[in-house]
Amino acid sequence: MRFQISGKQIDVGDALQTHVKGELAETFDKYSQRPTDATVIFSRDAYALTCDAIVHLSTGLNVQAKGTDADNIYAAFEKCRERMDKQLRRYKRRLKDHYKDRSAPVEYDAAPSYVLAADEEEWESQGESGLQPIIVAETELRVPTLSVGDAVMQMELAGTPMLVFRNERHGGVNVVHRREDGNVGWIDPRNLR
């Protein structure tokens, strides 16, 4: 597994790097996962120390976690690792109970992603063309090809409120999202007629 351990305005010493590598390897061995690479970033957020970790699994899914502590960088990492451990435990339980093992890695397609300006006064001042929003940022988004169950797992592992994916069954673009009531919603435009 490849590690990229860095710090934003924090010096990450050899002892911390060795600790991170050992603990992450132990966590992933525990659940028999095959990670390909891990990115761990330590930073200072006001008066707290933060650890953000993203680990890419060989199945194509990502596990993402964050931990904070007031004054100990090792404690911030341990909180991050505990969250990751909990996510992996849930992921393994789902695979064991409900889903088949994925034989091929997840395929990704590229899609444009836009961030639009939220200033309504500026939209209204444009007159008739007020329906044309101002694009603030344009990036490329990776859209995975997954089953609905795998998409829900990926959304939970990444810790995001929504995931756009291409449905394995019919190839159409679908969305899963976390609803306000705590349940997961699934949008399949193919069924909307």
TrEMBL record:
Single GO biological process annotation from the record: negative regulation of translational elongation
InterPro entries: HPF/YfiA_ribosome-assoc, HPF_long/plastid, RHF-like, RHF/RaiA, Ribosom_S30AE_C, Ribosom_S30AE_C_sf
Pfam family, one: Ribosomal_S30AE
GO CC, one annotated term: cytosolic small ribosomal subunit
Keywords, alphabetical: Cytoplasm, Translation regulation
GO molecular function, one term: ribosomal small subunit binding
Sigma 54 modulation/S30EA ribosomal protein C-terminal domain residues: 132-185
Localization in the cell: Cytoplasm
Main subcellular localisation: cytoplasm
SUPFAM superfamilies xref list: Ribosome binding protein Y (YfiA homologue)
Transmembrane region(s): none
Family: Belongs to the HPF/YfiA ribosome-associated protein family. Long HPF subfamily.
Assembly and interaction partners: Interacts with 100S ribosomes.
Job of this protein: Required for dimerization of active 70S ribosomes into 100S ribosomes in stationary phase; 100S ribosomes are translationally inactive and sometimes present during exponential growth.
PANTHER family: 30S RIBOSOMAL PROTEIN
Protein's name in the database: Ribosome hibernation promoting factor
